[in-house]
Design brief:
Length: 710
């Protein structure tokens, strides 16, 4: 039965660990540390959850922790300080989050061996428990399974220290980087990001024998600071009884958006001078009567960051827009917190509990979808007794209290969607005007920089000054020339409008940064050179895909030319090449030979880089062709570790996970080049590629699809 409790009531490892963290919260802990050691190896790995809470007495261990479904927490919740028990325990000050007394058995979901060490705040000894869940599988009855319970002189909680540590080993599987990343995100979101109370703070530590892998796993993506900066609206709202009693919504446009900020209060939206705004049902419709207090929901404190993910708007923040969209796709929506701790699985991808995405389809201008909002509906544990958690820890029981709660939150989101329309219209006007002047702005900036260089370096003496200035002017002239060429050609293609807007903004931003560097009291010449070369590389890269010499060309010839260009590098890095395409019949496709060769060289370069980076034994690259009725595919695969970031992110401009070198343009330019040809670049799985050897199954597999002539 205990094994079934762990397997059937707890969906995954993240929820299992979160339940143990909630136990730390219930024990009045101020700190909770989750240590992950060698979790990539199930045999060596272990996960420890340590806290500095009140700890457990021997009676508590025997009568509560080892008793499935004990009503200990529920009794504390029901009776509070008046609750009495016939065993010794340390009474926590916090109201318990857990109710069913089964969360701790989720440890079985993680690993087969569990060691618990605990010491209560007034005990001279600590208690150690060891459970091997495999004994439960081997024995029919509970008393036949080997459970070690012992008291001992403190070895972990020494001196006046007290608390609990649970260590799980014999992991059920080898953890991957993605599993660890998702787990860390879940721990971070376990506490409401809108609540500044730091009375309880969980954190995660990672230790792997492979330090390179450890460093890679620890790499941070988008931060909460980035999220906060990217949000155009911040909201704080309070719902009490049958009314919104407080509403504050701040519109904070980015620096490059020439629109004034504003604060919208409850008074601003009560134009009819009503004393309160009623909580509504459906899509903002005023209800006959919904009362949170009557249904046992209590007060809702609602916080949110709201985003505009329109492509033309995101071009103002190109440095984080790909990560932002990826993050919101997974984490967007409204999460629910009770006494600061998260209630799963509201806010999880795929759980549209408020029907936000469904309703947005019918009214995309006014309605807010899950990807447009990162919100938290916070509840008080004591006053929200009508909301009952399901036994499997995935949401509330679908009773009247829950329906009323959902209606209230849904109405708040609808209200936000209505209020922000005015700001969206203002942004739209700025975007439309910006499209007409942005191109000129970059050219003018280049001209100004040439004059600024001469003026600001007039009194600076350094070796090779004359040659440096001459070289800078030449490069700036080339930037202007290539930029104008790119402008003329790319803007003719509607498919390229977004990418060009992003590049314009990036170039403009770098030119502004260059101007600031030139005007510093002490000019760093090497830094100026690096900045100018970086801008030049970006403009040249995009100008190169503006070629219009698309014609019927042999696909095999294109592959041969690309491989000829990287042949020396393949040999230098001892990479074997499997020319599977040579066994296929040649066909012609509509392509620009130089551009498509450039795309393939970029992909080969990436494979060479990562095969070398991860020191793959016997590195190989596989090239083949795939025939379709009106298209032909060029398949390129390597036997490395595959993509370390989502493929859709890798296609975004200025998005790269290369620690050294690379501006995050290669695959984006490849994608844009394929679009200019009416084709596409896609990621494939091994099962989708005929003749692909098994050793390539975990590597990066890309297919370039080109149009045949009909």
């Amino acid at each position: 039965m205990l094994l079934q409790l762990g397997d059937q009531l707890i969906r995954n490892e993240n929820i299992a660990i979160s339940e143990l963290v909630k136990n730390a919260y219930d024990a009045d802990a101020s700190r909770c540390l989750i240590s992950c050691v060698n979790i990539n190896d199930s045999k060596k790995g272990k996960i420890s959850i340590w806290d500095d809470g009140v700890g457990m007495t021997l009676d508590t261990v025997l009568n509560v922790w080892l008793e499935p479904g004990a009503d200990f927490k529920n009794k504390l919740l029901e009776e509070g300080e008046q609750a009495t028990f016939d065993f010794d325990f340390i009474r926590p000050k916090r109201l318990p989050i857990g109710e069913k007394g089964v969360g701790r058995f989720g440890a079985h979901k993680i690993g087969s061996k569990v060691e618990l060490i605990t010491r209560s705040s007034n005990a001279p000894k600590e208690i150690r428990i060891f459970i091997d869940w495999e004994d439960f599988e081997a024995n029919k009855y509970l008393d036949e399974a080997g459970i070690i319970v012992e008291e001992r002189k403190p070895e972990l909680f020494i001196g006046d220290n007290h608390g609990t540590q649970i260590t799980i080993s014999g992991l059920k599987q080898n953890w991957t980087q993605k599993m660890y990343k998702d787990f860390v995100e879940d721990v971070v979101t376990l506490m409401s990001p809108f609540d500044s109370d730091d009375s309880f703070t969980p954190s995660v530590e990672l230790e792997l024998d492979d330090k390179d892998r450890e460093s890679k796993w620890k790499q941070k993506g988008i931060t909460l600071e980035d999220i906060h900066r990217a949000a155009l609206w911040e909201v704080h709202c309070r719902v009490e009884g049958d009314a919104i009693t407080m509403f504050e919504m701040k519109f904070k446009p980015w620096e490059d958006i020439d629109v004034p900020s504003r604060m919208i209060s409850l008074a601003d939206i009560q134009k009819d001078k009503k004393d309160k705004i009623e909580v509504g049902r459906g899509s903002g419709e005023m209800p006959e009567g919904v009362n949170l207090t009557d249904k046992g929901v209590g007060t809702i404190e609602f916080y949110a960051y709201v985003f505009d993910l329109d492509s033309d708007t995101l071009r103002f923040i190109p440095e984080i827009s790909p990560q932002l969209k990826s993050y919101l796709a997974k984490n967007g929506g409204i999460r629910v917190y009770r006494d600061r701790l998260r209630i799963y699985d509201y806010g999880e991808a795929g759980n549209d509990w408020l029907d936000l995405d469904k309703r947005r389809i019918n009214n995309p201008v006014r309605q807010i979808g899950n990807r447009n909002i990162l919100g938290a509906a916070s509840l008080d544990r004591k006053s929200s007794r009508g909301l009952i958690e399901k036994t499997n820890r995935e949401g509330f029981v679908d009773n009247e209290a829950y329906k009323t709660f959902a209606d209230a939150v849904r109405y708040v989101v609808d209200l936000i969607g209505t209020v922000r329309i005015k700001d969206k219209e203002a942004i739209k006007k700025v975007r439309s005007a910006g499209k007409k002047v942005t191109e000129k702005r970059v050219v003018d900036a280049v001209e100004d920089l040439k004059e600024s260089l001469s003026e600001n370096l007039a009194g600076v003496d350094f070796a090779g000054k004359e040659g440096f200035l001459r070289g800078c002017v030449v490069q700036l002239d080339e930037i202007e020339e290539q930029y104008i060429r790119m402008n003329e050609i790319l803007l003719k293609s509607s498919n390229m409008g977004l990418s060009f807007g992003i590049v314009v903004h990036e170039v403009d931003k770098r030119l502004s940064r260059l101007r600031g560097s030139i005007e510093l009291p002490e000019v760093d010449i090497d830094n100026l050179r690096i900045q100018i070369e970086g801008i030049s590389d970006i403009v040249k890269s995009y100008a190169a895909i503006a070629s219009t010499d698309i014609k019927q060309t042999s696909v095999k010839k294109a592959v041969d030319v690309a491989l000829m260009n990287v042949e020396f590098r393949l040999k230098a890095h001892k990479i074997d090449l499997i020319r599977q395409y040579a066994n296929h019949q040649d066909t012609e496709a509509k392509l620009s030979l130089n551009n498509i060769v450039g795309v393939m060289i970029n992909i080969f370069d990436n494979s060479i880089y990562w095969l070398n980076k991860y020191e793959i034994e016997e590195p190989k690259i596989f090239v083949s062709l795939k025939e379709y009725e009106h298209e032909v595919g060029i398949v390129i695969a390597d036997n490395g570790n595959g993509f370390s970031i989502p493929f859709e992110d890798a296609l975004q401009p200025f998005f790269t996970d290369k620690v050294i070198g690379g501006q995050g343009l290669g695959l984006h330019i490849a994608s844009e080049t394929m679009r200019m040809h009416g084709g596409k670049i896609i990621q494939r799985s091994a099962s989708e590629v005929d003749e692909l050897p098994n050793e390539f199954a975990n590597g990066a597999i890309i297919e370039l699809i080109l149009k045949k002539e009909r």
